[in-house]
Design brief:
This protein has 118 residues and is mainly α. The chain has a single domain (4-92), classed as Rossmann fold (3-Layer(aba) Sandwich), CATH 3.40.50. It has five helices and four strands, in the order βαβαβαβαα. The strands form two sheets. The chain has a two-stranded parallel ribbon. Strands 3-4 form a two-stranded parallel ribbon.
Length: 118
């Protein structure tokens, strides 16, 4: 609630990364009602990047949302799903170290996807 009432943004968007899942639909609907926000279905990486780039801040309980915010330079906080979840590994990491990991991951992905370009 403190973030919601800070007045630093004009809208709250709940990004649904599994918009066709009935349980997620209900969870997003309930959250949107509590926060007076809107649910945005995300079906592609482009959708995710577009929404995250437009955000002033990202609050994520999923690795994908936090990783997208990190890669796109958008401030974020994570919510734990439980002890030892994927997000616990990046939530306390200094941003320079996290950015270095993102760069290395991108480099390795490019080398696999485009082996002829070295």
């Amino acid at each position: 609630m403190q973030l919601q009432n800070s007045g630093t943004w004009s809208a709250i968007h709940i990004l649904s990364l599994q918009p066709d899942d009935p349980k997620e639909q209900q969870a997003c609907k309930d959250l949107a009602a509590q926060l007076h926000g809107s649910v945005i279905p995300v079906r592609t990486t482009e959708d995710l990047a577009s929404e995250v780039c437009a955000a002033a801040f990202v609050l994520s309980q999923r690795f994908h949302g936090a990783l997208a915010a990190l890669a796109l330079g958008v401030p974020f906080e994570t919510m734990s799903q439980g002890e030892g979840d994927k997000l616990s590994s990046i939530s306390a990491m200094p941003s320079a170290a996290a950015a270095a990991l993102v760069s290395e991951g991108e480099r390795q992905l490019r080398s696999v996807l485009f082996p002829e370009i070295r």
